[in-house]
Amino acid sequence: EKIIMKVKSIITVFLSLFLFSCGTKTIDPGAGGSCQPKWWMKAESDSNVVYGYGREGSRDSGTAIALSMAEAQRNALSQINSEIQGEVGKAVEELERESGGEVSEDYSKGVYNELRVDSNAPCNYCSRADSEECVDGNKLIVFTKVRVNVEDYLNEELREKMNSLLSKPEALLDNVRKK
Known about the structure:
The protein is an alpha+beta fold.
């Protein structure tokens, strides 16, 4: 019985040491965390300019660069879609004031869905603002920042299309119901 108690004590001590050593390790900040550039996630988007960020790693330089750029562009286009949604919201509120009634949420969503930008499509107005590469372990990590002028997307053509959609609510709602 004493031997069993000693074995239990030894197991408890080793288990405690193991758990203590695991609990004091630092959390891995992710690929490239040890060589993150100073400009990473610093520039803030506003109503005039949107910044998108991408960080990707690969053993192949070309792949890492392409993936990082694509991620940054998707990030920027998602923010452009938020701007478009805001513009649609303002236009719908104005329509409600003018008509004195309420506009359905489906209608608002329908207008947005017609105007939104496909965030997986190429970003025609994105320009690379910064890019930096580093090696972390056995991978090349590429950090990319892209810049987009909001007005390039919220241009006269988009506003005309939005006004056209808002002026024909029945056709738009029929289209929304079909989808």
